[in-house]
Amino acid sequence: MTASVLGRDFRLLWCAAVSSRFGDALRTPALALLAAAVTRDPRVIAAVTVVAQVPPLLFGLLGGVYADRWDRRRTMALVDGIRAGVVAALAVAVAVDRAGIVALLVAAFLLATLGTLFDSASFAVLPALVPPAALPRANGRLQAGTAVAGGFLGAPAAGVLFAAAPALPFALDAATFAVAAVLVLALAPAPVADPTIGAAAPRGSVWGEIVEGVRWLRGHRTLWRVTVLAAGSNLAISGLLAVLVLYALDVLRVPPAGYGLFAASAIVGGLAGALGAGRLAARLGTVPALCAVLAAQTVALSGFALARHPVPGGFALAVFAAGTVVWNSLWASYGQRHVPAGLLGRVGAAQRMVGLLTAPVGAALAGLVAAAYGTAPVTVAAAATFALVTVAAWRTLRQGFA
């Protein structure tokens, strides 16, 4: 399946996603650097990260409702336009030296809240742009493009731009949101014949629509089980990420100057996984591919836990990251193919919420274990968790192998 077969609208969506991700990669480290310039209190600096993690849990399901109620193309464009305004205002505040910690917290919260609506609409719009059989490849292309834009271009440039002028990363981020909004508006409107999207469709209460989406997800055996499995794997992934830098420095003996190169191995692996997701799904089938990916990640994570040198550790991390990206691409594709069009926003939001519920738990447990016993047991526990998730997947998803 070539990019031309995926079509003009997919190319527009891909360009919008890449533009937005590039801006995100500029803004996120710049926010951390700006917070550190404002205060050295680690609790306050950590709060900037925390407030960005709360909105998906608070408003994710609500965002799914409105992604199903409103025109998704216009919703995405409007959200990106508002985000451009928020970041532009922050850039001005930074430029005139008026960006205090309150402004950073408010900006982080607003952007994350708006992101919940955008993510739901973006997840739901893709099936209208490409054929069902092309969804795994389309999702992989999206993840590959955003990985390059964020990991290889945006993240390395953020520190350089911030050093040149603290307001510069935020100004460029605002521009990327504006570009993304224009690109999304250029998408073809949703077909008028679809009665499930638009103001003309009869609507119940917001809570009733949330329940409808959650109930549909809970009633679909395979999708619900895959969602629960994702929550189990996120428990391990979040714990691993929480101590990754310490494990790399203390156990793998990665030199501090080489940590960026070590971390880049995950980006390379993720890019490879994104490009191969469609081929893997075509060869094995989506559900069997999901099970195979979990098995491969278990092996990779076990190797990472046993490694005591940067090279094998970096290789194992790359394989593990590749599996994570393949899983995310195929998981999204499976839902997009099986969920009714009018429920895509709500069901996708419910999937993300359930999948992310374990992330803060994993990070907190990893911190406690690492403080008491060191970082090595955390990686062993993460590998063991993946092994359990893999066994559960092969036992519960057999009906999807047909």
UniProtKB/TrEMBL annotation:
GO MF entries: transmembrane transporter activity
Pfam family of the protein (one): MFS_1
CDD domains linked: MFS_MefA_like
Cell membrane keyword on record: yes
Question: Which membrane topology term applies here?
Answer: Multi-pass membrane protein
Membrane-traversing stretches? 44-65, 102-130, 142-164, 170-188, 223-249, 261-282, 289-307, 313-332, 353-373, 379-397
UniProt keyword terms in alphabetical order: Cell membrane, Membrane, Transmembrane, Transmembrane helix
Q: What is its main location?
A: membrane
- Which cellular component terms (GO) are annotated to the entry? plasma membrane
Tell me the compartments it is located in: Cell membrane
Domain of life of the organism in this record?
Answer: Bacteria
State what protein this is by name.
MFS transporter
Organism, scientific name: Micromonospora orduensis
At the highest ranks, the source species' classification is:
Bacteria, Bacillati, Actinomycetota, Actinomycetes, Micromonosporales
